[in-house]
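User: tokens in, sequence out, please.
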């Protein structure tokens, strides 16, 4: 222990003796360690930290899939969920739920709040207990049961001032009174990826659930379940398949080909973001390795200046291990100081990451510095100190005392060995930098391709206005249609408005709805009905959105309830379901209880769910034939008005019609377009920043090695110039040395990038992970930067004065 304290004291004195060197090294390490800590805090919160539930490994989401149509996972119907819990031996609890939004009236103020319609079993399933009051019981979760609500602690604090007497009070949700019976604890997390719920009401009180709870084909419920202790996912999957086959035999019209698949809840929440986070974590790890290589080069240069000191210590009896331990102690001290500063940088960086993260990033509220992150930082700092300090320490301790104690020992074999190590470090820096630059280049090209994808409609000058119609005020379809028609007419008269239409689901909002159908006269086996995206629109929708009409006609004001049902289909729909024949005039059966719908027109395809998602077959219904409560006005601003500038006037127009009408969201289509690519932009920016930092570090590394080489070869260069070497000869000699290292690094980096970038395949759009253009351009750019880093010390070498160099030697 005494020796260690002595090493620490001596190390501190030596570092303080060289403040410039110490500052540069600490800053380089702080940037590398801080960036790693910040990214790891995200990975820790999103991927590594268990879900905040008791025995979270028992929690699963259950999805319905079709083995016939190879459809993506989807929700379950209420009868299927009921059969699962009754027939399964693997489940302890099963709870179907619906996400919902409501208006909360509190005095004269009205706020949009998010909630969930849940069964009473959801709380024991999650092992969740309220902080105040109680949760509702199974006796309350029945049709016509009491109107009760459990609220979140956040809503209790935000809207009710933490009123301790809130239990038993009535609150208004969408103009309906609910009695507050409980307040959940602040650490309660509901297992959904989107907005954190503000309230929970009994599932049976949901009108949409009540209307469809006996319809097996209406699959609209998300289902979370808890496996019994000791039951594995594989065992549950096997049992669910048996139940699915049994239901298929009982209900062939709705369940043919249907499977029930359990997915670990953690995987369901974070699985989509895992590849991007792991790629970014790997990238920031490369940055730290490059920083370590640079610091190792600095230590080698510093060791060259201390070679006589080390030689004298060795001559006085210090063993090689003693010297290595002293030098490693100094390295670890540097790393720990850098780690401490890096932790401060990480605290700032985490705030920036949370602020810049896309809204869809799951568990974003849980991101922060905890004991695991602090432990990670300490471990990284310690390992970093050993990593960048070991090679210089071993190199410096391997001395030829006779050579080292000579005055002119700079040209000794020790220096040659040290130069080889420095060269190896530079090659490694260049190779790692190239991998990062190619990864960033692929994401940048992918993002550019994505932005150039046409969504199929004009995103400019359009304002979206979300108008959820009150169920109590507009209970019938006729009343809903009348309000929407009046709202369109009044908004069209608003100054600055060119045209107005309405749609139930806004494109690029991330939402969508699929529905099955059959073509009249073409029966298909049960369970094999095709499906398509479906939207309900008013007649001016296609004109307002700039969606081109390809054939036939679009809706008119005559397409109402009393007119024959019609629909409009997309080009992809017509190509897929009517190849080589005319789609206009064909009829679709959407509901067996309604007459078939005639196709009257074909319009252009749109990217409904996102630019990266290929156009899916879609058909449109006339809003005035199929009215809905969920309505979004699409308002096109008249030039030169900006869509954001008419937001207030449009809102005022709606309020003049109905002062109680809620307006939940109001965004421009351009904002929705930017939001739809926010995750890709986030990935690109982070990897681009790390790649740029790696490029700077690599350039500095090359420059440092070449500068040190020129200093070491001053005597040789002086002799060459004295013997007649021209400026160009000296320039080429130095540049050749540096570019050889750079090109070797580029070659190794290309091989590494070819292997490593394959893990990025799921993050790319429009380019492959081995895109030759990106590989070539990035290699040329890096080689150009390396050339610049070589030219500066090379030009200094050409100005060596032979007399000074020879006298110096």
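Assistant: Sequence out:
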């Amino acid at each position: 222990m005494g020796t260690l304290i002595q090493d620490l004291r001596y190390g501190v004195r030596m570092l303080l003796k060289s403040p410039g060197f110490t500052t540069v090294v600490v800053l380089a390490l702080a940037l590398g360690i801080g960036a790693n800590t910040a990214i790891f805090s995200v990975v820790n919160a999103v991927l590594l930290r268990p879900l905040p539930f008791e025995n979270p490994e028992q929690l699963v989401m259950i999805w319905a899939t079709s083995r016939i149509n190879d459809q993506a996972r989807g929700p379950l119907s209420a009868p299927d969920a009921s059969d699962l819990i009754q027939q399964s031996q693997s489940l302890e609890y099963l709870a179907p739920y619906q996400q919902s939004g409501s208006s909360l009236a509190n005095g004269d103020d009205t706020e949009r709040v998010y909630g969930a319609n849940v069964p009473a079993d959801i709380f024991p399933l999650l092992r969740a207990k309220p902080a105040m009051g109680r949760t509702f019981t199974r006796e309350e979760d029945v049709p016509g049961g009491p109107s009760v609500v459990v609220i979140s602690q956040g809503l209790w604090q935000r809207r009710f001032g933490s009123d301790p007497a809130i239990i038993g009070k009535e609150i208004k949700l969408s103009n309906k009174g609910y009695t507050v019976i409980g307040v959940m604890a602040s650490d309660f997390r509901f297992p959904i990826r989107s907005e954190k719920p503000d309230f929970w009401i009994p599932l049976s009180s949901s009108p949409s659930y009540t209307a469809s709870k006996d319809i097996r084909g209406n699959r609209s419920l998300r289902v979370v379940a808890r496996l019994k202790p000791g039951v594995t996912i594989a065992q549950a999957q096997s049992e669910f398949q048996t139940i699915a086959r049994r239901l298929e035999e009982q209900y062939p019209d709705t369940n043919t080909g249907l499977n029930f698949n359990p997915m670990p809840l953690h995987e369901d929440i974070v699985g989509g973001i895992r590849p991007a986070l792991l790629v970014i974590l790997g990238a920031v790890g490369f940055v730290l390795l490059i920083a370590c290589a640079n610091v190792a080069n600095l230590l080698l240069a510093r060791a060259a200046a201390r070679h006589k000191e080390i030689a004298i210590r060795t001559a006085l009896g210090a063993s090689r291990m003693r010297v290595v331990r002293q030098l490693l102690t100094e390295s670890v001290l540097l790393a720990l100081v850098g780690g401490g500063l890096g932790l401060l940088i990480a605290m700032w960086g985490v705030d920036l990451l949370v602020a810049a993260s896309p809204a869809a990033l799951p568990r974003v509220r849980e991101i922060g510095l905890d004991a695991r992150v602090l432990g990670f930082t300490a471990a990284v700092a310690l390992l970093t100190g050993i990593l960048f300090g070991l090679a210089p320490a071993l190199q410096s301790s391997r001395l030829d005392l006779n050579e080292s104690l000579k005055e002119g020992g700079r040209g000794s074999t020790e220096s040659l060995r040290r130069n080889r190590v420095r060269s190896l470090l530079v090659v490694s820096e260049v190779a790692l930098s190239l991998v990062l630059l190619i990864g960033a280049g692929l994401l940048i090209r992918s993002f550019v391709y994505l932005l150039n994808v046409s969504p199929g409609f004009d995103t400019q000058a359009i304002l979206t206005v979300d108008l959820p119609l009150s169920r109590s005020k507009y209970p019938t379809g006729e009343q809903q249609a009348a309000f929407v028609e009046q709202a369109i007419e009044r908004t069209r008269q608003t100054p600055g408005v060119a045209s107005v239409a309405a749609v139930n689901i806004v494109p690029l909002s991330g939402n969508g709805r699929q529905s099955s159908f059959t073509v009249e006269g073409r029966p298909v086996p049960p369970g094999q009905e095709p499906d398509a995206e479906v939207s309900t629109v008013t007649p001016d929708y296609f004109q307002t959105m700039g969606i081109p009409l390809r054939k036939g006609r679009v809706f008119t004001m005559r397409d109402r309830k009393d007119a024959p049902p019609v629909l409009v289909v997309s080009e992809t729909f017509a190509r897929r379901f009517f190849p080589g024949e005319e789609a206009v005039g064909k009829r679709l059966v959407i509901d067996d209880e309604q007459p078939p719908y005639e196709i009257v027109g074909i319009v252009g395809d749109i990217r409904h769910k996102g630019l990266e998602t290929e156009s899916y077959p879609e058909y449109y219904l006339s809003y005035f034939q199929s009215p809905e409560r969920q309505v979004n006005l699409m308002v096109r601003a008249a030039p030169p008005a900006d869509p954001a500038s008419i937001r207030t006037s449009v809102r005022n127009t709606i309020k003049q019609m109905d002062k109680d009408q809620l307006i939940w969201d109001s965004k421009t289509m351009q904002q929705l377009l930017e939001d739809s690519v926010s995750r890709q932009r986030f990935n690109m920016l982070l990897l681009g920043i790390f790649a740029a930092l790696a490029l700077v570090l690599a350039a500095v590394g090359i420059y440092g090695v070449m500068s040190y080489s020129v200093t070491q070869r001053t005597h040789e260069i002086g002799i060459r110039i004295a013997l007649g070497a021209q400026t160009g000869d000296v320039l080429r000699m130095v540049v050749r040395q540096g570019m050889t290292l750079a090109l070797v690094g580029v070659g190794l980096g290309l091989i590494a990038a070819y292997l490593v970038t394959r893990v990025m395949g799921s993050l790319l759009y429009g380019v492959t992970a081995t895109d030759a253009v990106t590989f070539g351009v990035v290699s040329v750019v890096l080689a150009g930067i390396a050339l610049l880093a070589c030219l500066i010390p090379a030009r200094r070498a050409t100005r060596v004065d032979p007399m000074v160099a020879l006298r110096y030697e």
